[in-house]
């Protein structure tokens, strides 16, 4: 079908994520059959944006949740992950009822355990578990080299390191898990415009990660000769325990002895305890790309406390933002 859409310059910046998804999936809609109508409701039932402000203004698709659900009207962008695509993805499975075999094709909104990145130039990259990768590699996206079996964050960091997400301030979309609940994913689809707030979109909503702090933490580890510890849970244990509210002063004291400059390392850590729990997983992914990621970061602000060569182990662990 032919698409017109609102001119980019008029798009609300908060809607950048929707706009990028819409542009990145043009081929998916063009190769699919569905009918649109002029809605009588004030806004999309999924993203709740007024019809004048969605990517295809005043074009809606009727959508029904299950057999008994009422009819709702969703915008083309929110409808897109619900479109089954033989051309772009391929065969998901055959549905067998009696003697009838019906092909079921893949949908973005049914990619369980899969991620996605949409670059500022609206280029889509998908990360799939190996089984799904094999299923969809013959589809158009597979043939275009847009599929990989990397973890979503690893793919994101590789794209960032290659300059594919430049300029970051223009906005890109990071989907941690497409999952199967399209509503949960699309309701608050949030673009990322700064590494200090990496918005991780998933079927269960959106969460934020201070990727900037993670990169500076990785840099501290490297500077202090601790790069090999980046993804080791045992190394981070006192910090992880503290983030969960389980203080262990003795273990923390021993940790301070292992780190050449603990003040600088603690200063670099993300401040949010939930993000600190992700330190080993995220840092293990950041470390291989560190040199390429550093140009995207500003140097850390100077420490407020005087630098000491080797802080005494008995130093009061209540200071600082660790606990
Ligand atoms: Zn919508």
Describe this structure in words.
The chain has 323 residues and is α+β, with helices and mostly antiparallel strands. It folds into two domains: 202 residues, no CATH class; 82 residues, no CATH class. 31% of the residues lie in helices and 15% in strands. A six-stranded mixed beta sheet has the order 7-6-5-8-9-10, with helices on both faces. Strands 1-2 form a two-stranded antiparallel ribbon. The radius of gyration is 23 Å and the shape is elongated. The termini are far apart. The C terminus is likely disordered. Bound molecules: zinc ion. The site of zinc ion has 9 residues, from strand 2 and helix 3.
By DSSP, the count of extended strands is 10
What is the total domain count?
2
- Return the structural class: alpha+beta
Summarize model confidence as the mean pLDDT: 91
In DSSP terms (H or I, runs of 4 or more residues), the helix count works out at: 14
Major sheet, described briefly? 6 strands, mixed
Distance between the termini: 56 Å
**Residue share in β-strands:** 5-15%
> Which percent range fits the helix content?
25-40%
Radius of gyration using CA atoms only: 23 Å
Overall outline: elongated
Uncertain parts: 314-321
Order of helices and strands: HHEEHEEEEHHEHEHEEHHHHHHH
Spatial ordering of strands, largest sheet: 7-6-5-8-9-10
Query: Which small-molecule ligands are present, each listed once?
Result: zinc ion
């Amino acid at each position: 079908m032919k698409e017109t859409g609102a001119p980019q310059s008029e798009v609300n910046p908060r809607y950048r994520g929707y706009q990028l998804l819409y542009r990145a999936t043009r081929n998916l809609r063009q190769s699919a059959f569905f009918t649109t109508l002029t809605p009588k409701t004030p806004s999309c039932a999924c993203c709740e944006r007024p019809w004048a402000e969605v990517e295809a203004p005043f074009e809606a698709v009727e959508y029904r949740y299950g057999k008994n659900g009422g009819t709702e009207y969703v915008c083309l962008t929110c409808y897109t992950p619900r479109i089954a695509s033989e051309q772009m993805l391929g065969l998901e499975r055959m549905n067998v009822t009696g003697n009838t075999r019906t092909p079921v094709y893949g949908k973005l909104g049914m990619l369980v355990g899969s991620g996605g990145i949409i670059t500022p130039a609206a280029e889509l990259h998908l990360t799939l578990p190996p089984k799904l990768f094999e299923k969809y590699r013959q589809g158009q996206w597979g043939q275009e080299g847009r599929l990989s079996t990397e973890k979503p964050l690893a793919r994101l960091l590789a794209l960032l390191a290659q300059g594919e997400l430049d300029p970051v301030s223009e906005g890109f979309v990071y989907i941690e898990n497409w999952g199967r609940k399209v509503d949960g994913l699309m309701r608050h689809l949030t673009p990322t415009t700064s590494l200090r707030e990496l918005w991780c979109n998933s079927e269960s909503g959106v969460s934020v990660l201070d990727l900037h702090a993670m990169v500076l933490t990785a840099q501290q580890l490297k500077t202090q000769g601790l790069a090999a510890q980046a993804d080791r849970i045992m190394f981070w244990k006192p910090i992880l325990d503290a983030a969960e509210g389980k203080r262990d002063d003795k273990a923390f004291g021993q940790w301070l002895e292992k780190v050449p400059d603990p003040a600088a390392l603690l200063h670099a850590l993300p401040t949010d305890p939930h993000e600190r729990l992700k330190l080993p997983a995220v840092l293990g992914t950041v470390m291989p790309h560190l040199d390429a990621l550093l140009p995207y970061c500003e140097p850390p602000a100077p420490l407020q406390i005087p630098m000491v060569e080797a802080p005494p182990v008995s130093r009061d662990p209540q200071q600082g933002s660790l606990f």
